[in-house]
Amino acid sequence: MEKETGRIEAFSDGVFAIAVTLLVLELHIPELKDGDTPVHLLNALKIQWPGYIAFVISFFSIFIIWVNHHKIFKQIYKRNTGLMFANGFILFLVSLVSYPSALLAKFFLSDSKQLSVTIYTGLFVLINLAFNLLWQQATLDKKLLRPGISDTAIRRLRNNYLYGFPTYLAAFIVSFFYPDLALAVCVLLWVFWAASSKKINFTETPVL
Amino acid sequence: MEKETGRIEAFSDGVFAIAVTLLVLELHIPELKDGDTPVHLLNALKIQWPGYIAFVISFFSIFIIWVNHHKIFKQIYKRNTGLMFANGFILFLVSLVSYPSALLAKFFLSDSKQLSVTIYTGLFVLINLAFNLLWQQATLDKKLLRPGISDTAIRRLRNNYLYGFPTYLAAFIVSFFYPDLALAVCVLLWVFWAASSKKINFTETPVL
Amino acid sequence: MEKETGRIEAFSDGVFAIAVTLLVLELHIPELKDGDTPVHLLNALKIQWPGYIAFVISFFSIFIIWVNHHKIFKQIYKRNTGLMFANGFILFLVSLVSYPSALLAKFFLSDSKQLSVTIYTGLFVLINLAFNLLWQQATLDKKLLRPGISDTAIRRLRNNYLYGFPTYLAAFIVSFFYPDLALAVCVLLWVFWAASSKKINFTETPVL
Amino acid sequence: MEKETGRIEAFSDGVFAIAVTLLVLELHIPELKDGDTPVHLLNALKIQWPGYIAFVISFFSIFIIWVNHHKIFKQIYKRNTGLMFANGFILFLVSLVSYPSALLAKFFLSDSKQLSVTIYTGLFVLINLAFNLLWQQATLDKKLLRPGISDTAIRRLRNNYLYGFPTYLAAFIVSFFYPDLALAVCVLLWVFWAASSKKINFTETPVL
């Protein structure tokens, strides 16, 4: 049976690739004054460190979201309207990432640090919700899925995102009190997702 | 018979994906003054609400335009110069969306609200015209279409866009007097298009 | 024989799609002062008309360059280093278009109109040269071409770009004295290319 | 055996295409004062020459990185987590290029010339490291590679990047003392990579 999701994946890949590459536009070239030396430039670059951190975290979070999107769509062969719009919701949120990322970069060293981390982690709660919605839409009608997919594989994929939801929600709540810890939880979740992305593909469900 | 529209679809997908992802660049990071507190940041973010509305409406309108583009090109197998340029006209208008969207975001709370909504709805009248033109070009020479496509399917697709035209035109005219209503009509049309996108694909014309 | 130029075409399509979509970033949202009315906004939008002209000309020129690129690569089945770099040179020039386009938009109503039109037409002379180079690289080794391509088709494609070169060069020279005429020649050349794109594909060389 | 790296290549092509096309945003349109003549505009454009140099070097460096990425992935048929993340690291660095490129453009004529060249060459040391990492991940498990690839071809590809590393490192160290020489070494390395890209593909390993 032929996959009919090729153009959805191509469009989604485009959005992921652009969202991830636009992040660099949030890194600003320092303005120097006449007479400023390389030491001033170096200091101006150093003081932007929250921008670099935000860039790294946002880049790899979108990258891992893409890896997971890839993994899910390997199991989806047909599409319906529900699936199209669950996917559209994911793309909407992913295209947004650079905005809270820029907020984080700009306000991490200010009094508004907590607020910017809360907005940032809140977006990832929503992205996790959207992935749950996508997988729920895909499994509502088993005709959409790869022929021969096992129930174990379906359950594992769902659990992967279900477990993510309370953790992201916890990070979101924690961000009100300990923003650094909340960011750390987000980074750890990406490491977990990166590691777990292997197991399902290669152990549970044979790749065509 | 092989499709020869693959590269047109790939190029179009690229333009749609970029147009939709560039929208985020119109969301601005607030400037705070020394001594400003998180409350100031929160207020500065809240006051930008027309920008968020414009972002949401523009994102999903481009997304639904892409869904419809996808649906039409599933029925087109060959291309000619007329088709290429009707498609180019759609891409031209889609690449423009972020500009009236930014006008809307900036002037929605000002005296120029009506003008910005009129420009915005006017663009969608043109996009609807371009879709009618594309489908007319595709059906002028039935050799361009998917072999075995039924006349009912052709008529349904045409009607889908024909009915859209007077509605968008109405929204455009209404925008001079009741801009909020005009925007609401646009949103409702997308809901209609989203819902109607299902019927033709799965009921009328069997998907290869 | 399988085409091995798929990823070159995909990468090129990406660059064309982005170059064409980034043009909108050169359209600026007017700044109004407190107390400004919709009439001020309308006037501020009207005074930007060279920007709209530059946007339209640049959009459709890149679009037609893409159509021609598409047409050439339908005849190319294998690649070598010379072809890769001739293509890279085209992409380099295409990614540049938005810069002279922005110069044109900004200085068309100033004393620097002639200079900005000269730079703009100069870029298209170079793009034409790059296309000649690409086709020359492709035909140097006939093993790169589509099996069964006729000598007439090869000659026609070459002539298409050869004839373009003196015309663009003429536009470039004319731009020093009559910038409006030079722009008009460029637009007319695109119309010619658009029209001629049909003949070769459908009359001379049967499409696989 | 079917390749299963199609979507990785498509996503990577997207990032490469966007990274290369965004570079033009770092070229700035000069601001003129009332009464300024075309001579002022010409001078303002001329004084930006380091920006043009940075644009050319960065464009072709990303282009050659893409050519090499293409070459490596022609030999890779399966993927695992290590490969995904080595590739992600390359894309991360490539998406960054426009930032040190903009630093170079802005500070090349200032006291901070050496610092900006050092940062710029340092990024290419990292990109070279990432390519070594990718090829090492791909060859750790020979099941990932194209069936029938010869050991000579594997060794040649590895050597290609291994030889690059000490040269880039040398350019990086030299940049502290002779920034112009360091930039020249980078350009020469791209010429070498461009030339060497031919040999392995067409002599050593038959292309499917």
From TrEMBL, chains A, B, C, D:
It catalyses: K(+)(in) = K(+)(out). InterPro entries: TMEM175-like. The chain crosses the membrane at residues 12-29, 49-67, 88-109, 115-135, 165-193. One of its GO terms (cellular component) is membrane. GO terms for molecular function: potassium channel activity; proton channel activity. Keywords: Ion channel, Ion transport, Membrane, Potassium, Potassium channel, Potassium transport, Transmembrane, Transmembrane helix, Transport. It is a multi-pass membrane protein. It holds the Pfam family TMEM175. It is found in: Membrane. Belongs to the TMEM175 family. This is DUF1211 domain-containing protein. It comes from Pedobacter psychrodurus.
